[in-house]
Each structure stands twice: as structure tokens, then as C-alpha cells.
Amino acid sequence: MRVPRLTPRRALLGTLLCSLSVAACGPAPEAPAPDSAPSGTQQQQPVVYGTDNRTDVYAHADATLRARAQQSTVALMNTSDYTVNATTGVVTFNASTLQSAYNLCSTERFLSDLTPAFCSGTLIDDDLVLTAGHCVTSASSCTSTRLVFNFYRTSATGMQTVTSADIFSCTSIVARQQATVNGRNLDFAILKLDRAATPRFTPAPIRAGNNALAAGTNVTVIGSGSGIPFKIDSGGSVRDARATTLDYFVASTDTFGGNSGSGVYENSGYTVAGILVRGETDYVANGSCNIVNKCTETGCRGEDITYVRPAIDAYCGVATSTRLCAGYPPPPTPVTFTFTATNTNSAQQNTTNRNVTLAAGQTLNFGTCSVAGASGTGDTYLRLYNGTTQVASNDDSCGTLSFASFKATTAGTYQIRAGCYSSGSCSGTVAYTIQ
């Protein structure tokens, strides 16, 4: 397993977390393209299984999948990755070619494609994009992220024109998770755009229900692998459905760094079934240059794809949408309390506390992020206790802010304790809901 690239403090935290929970430390998230990665984004790149099925949008035979790429897919970029002509509004991209970015041998595919994208996403409502949680980790990374439509080839030598009208800003992270929660390894984010993308673009439909995908189910990935213009890979299939946990499934998709957050579709029905999040190592050395790492169709470990339903459940627990939340109860009104703290030894002393009564089966969502009304300054740390027993905690669910979810198995009075990482100082508003 390739070790994720982290800031020094995050690297130490990751080591501590891995020592506590093996389930949380599988292969690292998909990597952004090399010159486009936001600071602190974790890196890991996947692989080709059997035949390389990546196809440019213009060349794919399936009209519905072409439409999903053209109408529903976005590339996540930084503002430094493109320039907008002040007169015409036409966008040019500031990035290396794929060959240059990865030192690829001349035998490889898509060598002249530019690599401005660091992740991918899917439009799922008028102003909502679904992506991976590790792609956008905090309010500040949301602010710096741009979501770009129309990033695809129209021919072997031509690109669809991208204008300023095709570029959207991220205004907030409405729902996000990148952790093992109640035994489920989850990695998703739903981002709110600065304006509606419809009717110009069309949201992709979400797979109904919460059933496991059967092993052997054919799936398609659409996104910016290695940061290049959208590719469609409709040759993957499910290897392991993880039906007992329904957190992610494993499939043989030909996906690359930059495919993180890509929508993964069922080939029958063309609904979004999951979000591409993790995978095998991608490029390997071949003399003085690199080539795509290839596995047999049944070889290597496969690519991890977060099921879409946990993301929708999280969103509909805090917000409403006619398109996404039919059948969900209205989200509860959050309760809030404020705190200012210092020297809390990671929320183990000098904390601000709030008691919450839960019935068996109720879920408590609490955070300085991800819940309406939540906010924080500095590096917050939250813990939840049942008497003297800690039952949940979180440090960095949203960058340096915190969010946790806990489902009570027994009724009782629980206590939220709000503090700061290590001996630092912080402040914020803790918001919580009970469902």
C-alpha cells in the first residue's frame, strides 16, 4: 500500500488512527493530478484491469453515458488551473500534459491531454455536486475549489469550449464524511454551488433503495482520471458488494488519480450507485519512463467505491430536496451551544459540555461542521460519553473542524464535550440533531 502524502501533523494523526483501527486505514484516497493537488489532500492512484476501457466522451457508443458526461459530470480545479479571457469568457487551462506530469512512455494513451483537475464530481440536484470527502476537506478548501462542466473532447484533436458560465464555486459543504462511522468506512461530500446549474446542465439520477450491488454487476465510471478531460470506463464489474456493511463496494474499474469523487453508474438504469474513492497504484516504472500498471480482470485488490445511499441519508438528515429526499422525514432543527477553550488535551479537560438524552435507536449528529448552524475557529475536538465511557469522537472531519455521528443502542443521558486539539486554543458553535 502506498503511504498517503500528508502534512506532518496529519501524518502523525494518521499513524495513530491506523494503530487504533485497521478498518479505517485501507488503500489511500485517489490522488489529484500532480500540479493541481490542494494542500493536505491525500494521494493514491489506481490501475487498469484487463483491457483499458477508458474512452473519450465523443467516442463512446452509449448515448446515455455520453449525456451523463456532458450534462452531469464536473472536474474539480483550483483557480490557478485555468485562465478566463476577460473579453470572450473562454477558458484556457494551465496544466502539464499527461505525459509530462507523470513522465509517461510514448507507448501510453492520452499523452497530450492536459491535467488541470484534482478530483471529479457529479451534479445530483440543481445546485448540488456529489464527490469524495477527501477531495474537499474544509470550508477553506470549498472556497478555493471550482467545479467545471464541459471538460471533455469532441474529437481526437478537439475540446468542447469551456466558458466562465461553465465554472461554479463551492459555497458550502452540506454533508461530508471521511471516517469509519459505526463500523462503516465512508468517504463522501455533497457540495452546494454558488448558483443553479440547471436547466443548462442535468442532474444524474440516484440509485433507489439501499440494497447491495450483486457481484458481477457491470458498472461505469465517468471522470477526470489523472486530471485529464472526462473519460468513460464502462468495462468494470463488482467484485465484492460488502453487503453486511453497505459502506463501499469493490470493482474492477480502470480509474486513475483524479477519478476520486467520480460518479459510478449501474450499466442497467444508468443511476449513480457510488463514488470512486480508493484504489491500487497506477503508474509503474519502465526504464526511464512510466507506464500504466495493469492487472488481470480478476487480479490485484480492486477499486473501492462508496455506496451513494449514505451520502444521500446524510444530506437528507440536515437539508431537504424534492429530487433527493422524497420519503425522508423533514430534517430536525439543530440545537446549538457555543464554546471557547484552551489547553483541553484534545477535549479531555477544560471542556464545554452539553447533556443529551437519547432513546435506543436514535442517532445523534454533532459537530462544529456538517450540521446547520455549526462553525469553528482553530482546531476543534469533540467527544461523546455515556457516563465514563467514550462512545464517539472526532478531530478533523472537515479540515480542522469536527463532526461525528452516533447511534444509541441503549437509552440514556449522553454528554458532548467540546474542546481543542492537543493544548491549543479554539472556539466555535457545536450544532447537533437527534434523529
TrEMBL record:
Enzyme Commission code: 3.4.21.-
Pfam families, alphabetized: Trypsin_2
Key words, A-Z: Hydrolase, Protease, Serine protease, Signal
Secretion signal span: 1-24
Limits of the Peptidase S1 domain: 76-412
Enzyme class: hydrolase
Family from the record: Belongs to the peptidase S1B family.
Family annotation (PANTHER family): SERINE PROTEASE (PTHR15462)
Protein name: Serine protease
Classification lineage: Bacteria, Pseudomonadati, Myxococcota, Myxococcia, Myxococcales
